[in-house]
Write a structure and sequence with these properties.
This protein is of the alpha/beta class. The protein has eight helices and 19 strands. It has helices at 3-24, 27-48, 168-185, 206-212, 250-268, 303-308, 343-354, 376-391, and strands at residues 52-60, 64-66, 71-80, 88-94, 97-103, 110-118, 123-126, 128-135, 142-147, 152-156, 192-194, 216-218, 228-232, 273-277, 282-285, 333-338, 358-363, 396-398, 411-415. It has a six-stranded mixed β-sheet, with helices on both faces. A hairpin with a 4-residue loop joins strand 14 and strand 15. Helix 1 (3-24) packs antiparallel against helix 2. The radius of gyration is 32 Å and the shape is elongated. 32% of the residues are buried.
């Protein structure tokens, strides 16, 4: 019942008990009339002298956290009110659920308390508008006012470093890129480096190979520093999921987690990287900002923030364009992350190889050629597409062995008194 309904009921009770006393008399009717009048008067006072200029300020230790981390929120509440209040309840719509705080203010008008949100999945969250409730002793008259929200929080995927045996090719790429970076800053720059899987056979330096005893290849002929490209494929055809499972697909979560680990390692080792999503419609260019580290700089301009809002597209196959490679130096390595290979993605990989880039494909969904929910044409194309990529020197790895860690239950709890 709203405040107007409460006052109308109180007024009806006052009139009814006053009429009963006038008609019948008696101490009981008089008592009921007085109580109804006090209830009605108290409701009017709570309405006329209600809390005004309600101000809520939330302080968070960081506006960007990793998935699974606890975030502590310090709430500072301040308002003006001309009469003492017996109780107030502040309800906040937090990313982890509704948090209710009961306070007995009396004549106080400033309050501070804390609570924690835990178990949050990756995403971009914002506190919604809440409500502040107050009323009389028995709850006969309860009123409320809307409170402001707007506080934002970005939960990025877990970005831990690579462990032993995770990706030998990645370690070799890191070392090769750092070597190129150091050599480009020196007075003398070698013309070759150790062969890496995916390098074109036409760039093998045979004289140095004979001298070193290992395959050596020419450095790419470019004035720009080679960097890392990361493509997160969001097309629905890249994952064996139903429409209802798009927001919670393990294969896609592995893609996001793997991309976060590539970004984390690239930033740790000062390697410039480019992140592409939705076929290039949503991109992040770290050419000038990679040196800020994984948790520094503008929160809206960080590569991990893009991964926080990554979703499988409702479109079966997204449009991939080769124009998005224009900002990537020739000879750079590109990592393609997807659940499974589809035709559009395979064609894009072949185009990138033709442009002189070293491409590596990582699949987070095991190929199920005999699955009942996949057509024979899809299974046949998966095998043909993968064999075609391998034939052209593209490393293809399956990373389904990395289990997704449990983030626990999403909940909000009080901290302190």
């Amino acid at each position: 019942m709203n405040a107007l309904g409460q006052r109308m009921v109180s007024a009806v009770l006052v009139v009814a008990f006053a009429s009963l006393y006038q008609w019948h008399g008696g101490k009981a009717a008089l008592f009921l009339s007085i109580m109804a009048f006090l209830m009605f008067t108290g409701g009017l006072l709570l309405h006329w002298f209600r809390p005004r200029r309600i101000h809520i300020q939330r302080k968070i230790h960081a506006n960007r956290i990793e998935a699974g981390e606890r975030v502590r929120v310090l709430v500072e509440l301040e308002f003006d009110c001309r009469i003492p209040l017996l109780w107030i309840v502040l309800c906040e719509n937090t990313p982890a659920g509704v948090h209710r705080k009961l306070i007995f203010p009396g004549t106080r008008r400033q309050f501070t308390y804390q609570y924690e949100c835990s178990g949050l999945r990756r995403g971009v969250y914002r506190w919604d508008t809440g409500r502040l409730y107050w009323g009389d002793m028995f709850g006969w008259n309860t009123l409320s006012a809307e409170t402001t929200g707007g506080t934002s929080l970005i939960v990025v995927p877990q970005a831990t470093a690579w462990g032993k045996g995770d990706s030998a090719e990645f370690a070799a790429m890191i070392e090769g890129t750092l070597s190129e970076r150091r050599n480009s800053q020196g007075n003398r720059s070698p013309e070759f480096r150790e062969y890496q899987q995916g390098d074109p056979l036409g760039r093998i330096h045979w004289k140095s190979t004979a001298k070193m005893g290992k395959l050596q290849t020419f450095l790419p002929d470019t004035t720009d520093l080679a960097s890392l490209g990361i493509l997160v494929y969001e097309g629905a055809s890249g994952y064996d999921v139903k429409q209802s499972e798009i927001l919670d697909a393990p294969a896609f979560e592995r893609v996001v987690r793997t991309a976060a680990r590539w970004i984390h390692t690239a930033e740790r080792d000062d390697i410039s990287y480019h992140l592409w999503m939705e076929g290039g419609d949503k991109s992040y260019d770290a050419q000038d900002q990679w040196q800020h580290g994984p948790f520094h700089g503008d929160a809206e301009n960080h590569g991990l923030d893009k991964l926080a809002s990554a979703r499988i597209s409702k479109v079966q196959s997204v449009s991939l364009r080769t124009e998005m490679l224009s900002g990537l130096a020739g000879g750079s390595r590109i990592v393609v992350l997807t659940g499974k290979l589809d035709q559009a993605l395979a064609e894009w990989v072949m185009s990138a190889i033709g442009s002189g880039y070293c491409v590596e494909v990582q699949l987070t969904e095991a190929t199920r050629s005999g699955s009942a929910d996949r057509s024979m044409n899809e299974s046949r194309y998966d095998s043909f597409g993968l064999e075609q990529l391998r034939h052209n020197g593209v490393p293809v790895h399956v990373v389904t062995d990395h289990a997704l860690s449990s983030l626990g239950k999403v909940e909000v709890t009080d901290v302190g008194a």
